[in-house]
Structures are given as C-alpha cells and as structure tokens.
Amino acid sequence: MRRSTAIVTALLIGLALPVPAAQAAARPPIQPLPADLEVIRASEATALYGSPGIKPIEQRKTSLITMGDSEISGEGVGNYVPGTHQDGNWCDRSYDQAVFRTGIPSDTQYNLACSGGQPVHLIEGSGQRQWNELNQGDYLAIKARNTHVKLIWIVVGANGEGTIQFGPVATDCAVKRVFFQGPCYGTYTDQWAIRTDGSRQQVEQVLASVKQTMTRAGYLATDYELALMSYPSPGSPDVEDNPNFPGWYGGGCLIYLHDAAFARNKAVPMFETALRRAAQNQSVRYLDASRLFHGHEVCTDSTSVRGLFIEVGIWDENAARQSFHPNYRGHGMFAQCMTAFFTSGLSTASCVDPASTGQGVLYPGLMEFKQLRNAGTGGCADGEGYNSRNATKQVSWTCHGGRNQGFWYDSTRQSVHSELSHDRCLDVRGGSISANTEVIIYDCHGGNNQKWVFAGNQIKPATNSGLCLAFDSPSSGAPRLRLQTCGTSTRQQWSFESRNFANPVGYGYNDFIGSRVY
C-alpha cells in the first residue's frame, strides 16, 4: 500500500498536478513563547480578534513586516509614530514609511525597524533590545503567531561593531566638511572590504535566525516571503549639475565631493555585493536598490534623500540623526520597488529609475555592466577623468574594467546607462542627430537623442539607421565618441562585452578623479 501511494504521488508531481492535502507537508508545531512575550502576544491577539488564542494560519489577518535600521524605519521622513522620536526612544518610525504605501494586499502592516538597529537586534531571543522596546526578532515572533505574515522585508547591516558602521562614518565625513578638515575617504577606503564582509557575516546570521523564528511559529517556507533589500547611495559628486543647486549649506549637502564619489563609486557597491552574498548564502530573495537614488541624491534637482539637517530644539547627539536618509519620495520609491518585486516571484531583481521620473522600475536579476570595446582603436569607451558630470566626454582609453567604462543597455527604452550613475546616459549633444555630432553622457530623460540600436557590430541612433557611433581621429588627444555616416571603418565597430578583471567589483583605479574638492 505504501509503495502504491508513493507511485501515485510521484505521478502527480510529474504531471504538475496538486498533491492531495492529506499528503502535503505538515506545518511544524508552534513553539511556546517565553512568559513575558506570551502576555504581549495574548493581549495583541485579543485586540485583533477578541480572544487571546492562536488561530489557525488560514483564519488570521494577513500582514506585511519591515525590520532593520534607520534606512527603512522612516527616519528622515517625519510624521513619526508618537513615542518613537523622543528621549528614551529614537526609533524614528514614520507613518509615511514604505510598508504602509505598497500595493501588496494585506490586512495590516507592521514597521518593526528602528533607527540604529544592528543585526543582533533582529535575532529572536538575543536579549539585545533598543531603547524601551522589545528586540525586533521577539516582535516578529509575536506577530507571526497572531497574523499570517506574507512578507518580511529586511534592510540591515549598516550598524554595529564589526559592520560598515554607517552612522559614525557619515558623522565623521560631515563634521570634516563642516569644519573644512579635508575629505574623510582616506580613513576608510583600505578597510572597507573588511567592514563589508563583517556586515555580510552578521546579516547572514539575521536571515538564518528569521527563518528559524518563522519555523518556530509554525510556518513552512512557502507560507511567507523573506526579502533582503540593499541600501541606495545617498550622495553624488554630480550635485552641481542641478540647475537649481541650493548651495552647500542651503541644501544640507555638506560633504566633500571626493567623499561623495567614494560613497557612490566604491563604498555602496562593495556593501551591495556583501549583502547580495548574504542573501545568496541563505537562499533568500534579494532586491538590489543600490542604484535606485542615482539622480535623486542629496542636493540633486529631484532628491529622494534628506540632506544635513539639524533639528531645532534638540541639542544633543540626536539633533542631526535624520540627515542623509530617504525622504517621503524615497520611501515611495521603496514601496514601488518592493510591490513589483513581491508580485514578480523573482528570486533576485534590481530596481532603478531609468529615465529620472521618480518612479522605481523593476528589472529581473542583477545588472551586468559591460564594456564597449572599439575595433579601430582597441580601447574602450571611457568616461573622461572617471567623471559622470553632465556633458562628460566619452573617449577611447585602454580597457581596464573600471566603472567609468561600464555600460548597461536597456533594451526596452533603448538607453545606454553609465555604471557610475544610472542617471547618466549616452546622449547626442544638443539633440542634433547628425553626422559629426559629439556623443556625451547626460541626465537620462528618454528622448530620441538617447535611444540606440545595436545592429551587428555597429551602434546606431534609433531614429537614423544611416548614422553610426564611432571614435573620431583627432590630431591630438584621445579619440572621442561621435556620430558618423555608417560605413566600413573599424572605428564604427564595437564589441559590447563582459569585463574580465581580477577584482570582480571593478576597483583598483582612482575612483575619485574628476571630483573637485569643496
């Protein structure tokens, strides 16, 4: 009889038919909580349902949960939950935070994240509390028994001993700029790999613990989604491209451009790589949002980040804590990205704003930025001076795998994006799609002068198939990108290829060239 049952089950699986409920995997038993947590759980259950018992998961209200630190708590947004923005509790949870603004159907939403949250604060039973609150992992254990948790959205790894320690680093860099003490990046650049790997290790522990918490609460892995999201870059060395630049003090963009370049070109990408590996090692869904705020950083013309902000009336170390965090618009972009990611079913995805519209757009997988190698010069298209400012020349240079030689092609929008900033696209200068016009990088806007078609080994403007992207032949200086009438010249022939370099993140060159010091 057992053999017959096994054969029938195998046939059903092979035919992709549902296995009868009696043969489906049974949920693990719900483990009892410590007495103090059980009192809280029973009280919350009574408020939800009128009775303290634990309902079967199918009969519970559904919920979405965010966990982590200030990046996701809502710090910097304002409209804080009473009691979370005052002495004794600086979790800075906002009613305008992303989890309350998704399009994911749910009965209730819980923002458990707390400013300053460290990985250990997300581990159930660790005994590590913040302010006057429970550990976030303990909170999760309670919510998981009282509701059917559909999504656990985690943003963590920036705080705590042995991590990148974003808070102290950002404070150091801002103080140095305010008092004209010189850039801070030299203090951190050589130790950044160690710091990011420390974050990776601790985030892996968090993800393993959260999965264990859900198992102890009686969940199968298929009952909920666990997603780790990376941190977007808050600053840019291109702030002066803003036609309405508010000024270094007026806009709160008090950070040296060298330091902003370090953050965007090295610190954030290396941190993203570490978080990605943590998610992969724990088989957790991963959303890369590291490029989401490109073009929307502090002091840009459409910012999604709050600049340096000193709160009037708070004269202590908490006065500036809201600085350099996502604002209301930033959390709206987070919500767009997570909504699309949740419904996509993808295990890994990236979210960016491809045409500077302020809207997060989801792309499957991780973006591979490739190099454009020219057959005629043997060199690669290279952002001159490692710069991403508007109108930066694209020249022929020895291929070296640096980020100023990385490009990503959006086949839907036909735009070619620079790896330095996703908000910079190959652009026919002045919009004149005609022979001999220079091709530069400029704010991505989706116009015809930023649309390209790959045709064999040639690259052509989408609106004029008779013109080709090519390197010119100057009498002096490096060849520059231009449009030319299509022909047989090898300078019109390109290989859009993966980069082969020893360092997979693409560093080892001066990441800060082209950024002036202020």
Strand-helix topology:
Blueprint: H1 2-14, H2 35-49, E1 62-68, H3 70-73, E2 108-111, H4 136-146, E3 148-155, H5 166-178, H6 185-188, H7 192-216, E4 225-229, H8 257-281, E5 285-288, H9 328-344, E6 348-352, E7 361-364, E8 371-374, E9 380-383, E10 392-397, E11 407-410, E12 415-418, E13 424-428, E14 439-443, E15 452-455, E16 458-461, E17 467-471, E18 481-485, E19 494-497
Helix pairs in contact: 2-4, 4-7, 7-8
- Strand line-up of the largest beta sheet: 2-1-3-4-5-6-7
Overall SS class: alpha/beta
Record field, number of beta strands: 19
Our count of domains comes out at: 2
Question: In DSSP terms, counting alpha (H) and pi (I) runs of 4 or more, how many helices?
Answer: 9
Distance between the termini: 80 Å
Average pLDDT taken over every residue: 90
- The third-level CATH topology of the largest domain is Rossmann fold
Helix content: 10-25%
Main beta-sheet strand count, sense and barrel state: 7 strands, mixed
Unreliable residue stretches: 1-23, 502-518
Compact overview of the structure:
With 518 residues, the protein is α/β, with parallel strands linked by helices.
How is this structure best described in words?
- The chain is built from nine helices and 19 strands.
- With 518 residues, it is an alpha/beta fold.
- A seven-stranded mixed beta sheet has the order 2-1-3-4-5-6-7, sandwiched between helices.
- Strand 4, helix 8 and strand 5 (285-288) form a beta-alpha-beta unit.
- Helix 2 (35-49) crosses helix 4.
- It starts with a helix and ends in a 21-residue tail after the last strand.
- 49% of the residues are buried.
